[in-house]
Specification:
single chain, about 475 residues, alpha+beta, Aminopeptidase, Alpha-Beta Plaits, 2 domains, eight-stranded antiparallel β-sheet, six-stranded mixed β-sheet, 11 helices, 24 strands, about 30% helix, elongated
């Protein structure tokens, strides 16, 4: 057990910690490319938050470096190896419905409320004060330590790409941007569109013609709403309405219909969820597909809706596509159809995110998928792939962080695998480590985002001991 009382050390510095944290939280550091300049390539607020952290480091005697106004680091200690702590100071837009100013950093009932309190400004300040404590105590170290600060984690990770083009990759590290105890494995994330190829026989046969169909806006969200406008032959409209009412009743789903300029519009509601586990929600788009594919549609729509029904309805594991996969480290491959669109002129598309296990090879999976889609008259566009991330359980990094967590909390350091992606995957040997303790509500990206101050102080003590143990 470390002889230093790390929790006491942060409590001694509690007032200045809160003051600095509030200063950072009060900056509206949302991506703003419309007002970008050379000095602030991702917007003024984001640049201001980066500058705030770099100046804090200079005040406390760290070596600071600004990398092209898009990332930076604070450095302490010397050694051949580098320990990296990956943080970010950009936040998602605040949204509506807050009970206090989203950038007020108000403290109520032991919690600090602000956009970024949990993701990721609170943890960034915890990591910073952890390193400050290590420096103040002047403990002997054998590694160089860097707090790496990103400004584009919530969007395209341009900060990480830019930073590692200029700077050396740390030998080991952690990202304080997820859950405790330790996230040691993250699934691969592949996003892409499946687009309907044009067909020669665009016959407007069928009793029902689909004019426009839409559901969802983001690959990584289960869509909670879908709508379609239909042109039905005389007599068919009444039958479609009757069948739709029966369908909604049978599926126990909210929905409605109305006539707009002679066209029949159907709407349906589902339940939203994060796309990493589609079964936690109800995909409104796929439910409406299920109904539409039972109608006598025009040929182009029939081709699209039958394809979606046959390969995606009631299957979030890619079994029907022949790409299902499972391993004991990260579980099942999951597939979320986050965007569905069909237009009578352009045809249809599906936008999806595939979260695949760490031992799965996405290149092989894509070859299988391409072959099936070609036969079905579809093809893939906008393909992106972030490879899985995994650190061996027996590694020094995991063993050290587990020991620290047990000593600081008295709880078991369970290893977690996730379908989401954290900054840790930009390190060759990195894990996500806190700050959200087991049993606490995850309110990142939601209104009234908060962090218990006591949890932040506890996380700081954990990070301080972790830095010391990993770098001594």
């Amino acid at each position: 057990m470390s002889s230093i009382d790390w929790l006491n050390e942060i409590h001694i510095r509690k007032d200045s910690f809160i003051k600095d944290l509030q200063g950072l939280l009060q900056i509206k550091s949302v991506l703003d490319e419309e007002n970008a300049t050379e000095e602030a390539p991702l917007g003024q607020g984001v640049k201001e938050a980066l500058t705030f952290m770099l100046q804090l480091g200079e005040r406390d005697g760290f070596i600071s470096k600004n990398v092209k106004n898009i990332a930076g680091h604070l450095q302490y200690g010397q050694g051949e190896e580098i320990l990296g702590i990956l943080c970010h100071v950009d936040v998602v837009p605040e949204g509506d419905g807050w009970s206090s100013d989203p950038y007020g950093a108000e403290i109520r009932d032991g919690k600090i409320y602000a956009r970024g309190a949990l993701d990721d400004k609170g943890p960034t300040m915890a990591a910073y004060y952890a390193l400050k404590i290590v420096k103040d105590l002047n403990v002997p170290l054998s590694k160089e330590i860097r707090i790496i600060i990103g400004t584009d984690e919530e969007s395209d990770w341009r900060c990480v790409d830019t930073y590692f083009k200029e700077e050396k990759m740390p030998d080991i590290g952690f990202a304080p941007d997820a859950d405790f105890p330790i996230i040691y494995a993250e699934k691969g994330i592949s996003d892409f569109d499946i687009v309907q190829l044009p067909k020669d026989d665009n016959v407007s046969d069928g009793a029902v013609r689909v004019l426009q169909f839409a559901s969802g806006r983001r690959y990584n969200m289960v869509p909670d709403f879908a709508s379609v406008s239909l042109e039905a032959k005389e007599g068919a409209q009444t039958e479609v309405i009757q069948r739709y009412q029966n369908f909604l009743k049978e599926k126990d789903l909210p929905g409605k219909y109305y006539i707009d300029n002679g066209d029949l519009v159907l709407e349906i509601e589902g339940i939203s969820a994060h796309g990493l586990e589609p079964n936690n929600g109800i995909n409104a788009g796929l439910k409406l597909v299920e109904f539409l594919s039972s109608l006598e549609l025009d040929s182009k729509a029939r081709h699209y809706f039958h394809f979606v029904r046959d390969y995606f309805v009631n299957d979030s594991r890619g079994k029907k596509l022949g790409i299902n996969y499972h391993d004991d480290i990260t579980g099942d491959l999951t597939l979320n159809v986050g965007i569905l669109e069909f237009d009578s002129n352009k045809g249809g598309k599906l936008g999806q995110t595939v979260r695949y296990p760490v031992t799965n090879n996405m290149d092989d999976t894509k070859v299988k998928l391409d072959a099936l889609l070609e036969k079905q008259g579809f093809h893939i566009t906008n393909f992106s792939d972030s490879k899985p991330h995994y650190v061996e359980k027996e590694s020094e990094l995991i063993q050290t962080l587990s020991k620290v967590y047990v000593e600081q909390t008295g709880e078991e350091a369970k290893l977690i695998s996730i379908g989401g992606g954290t900054y840790a995957r930009s390190l060759e040997k990195g894990v996500a480590f806190g700050p959200l303790f087991p049993g606490r509500e995850d309110i990142a990206h939601k209104k009234d985002e908060y962090m218990y101050l006591e949890d932040l102080l506890k996380a700081t003590a954990i990070y301080a001991q972790a830095i010391y143990e990993l770098a001594k």
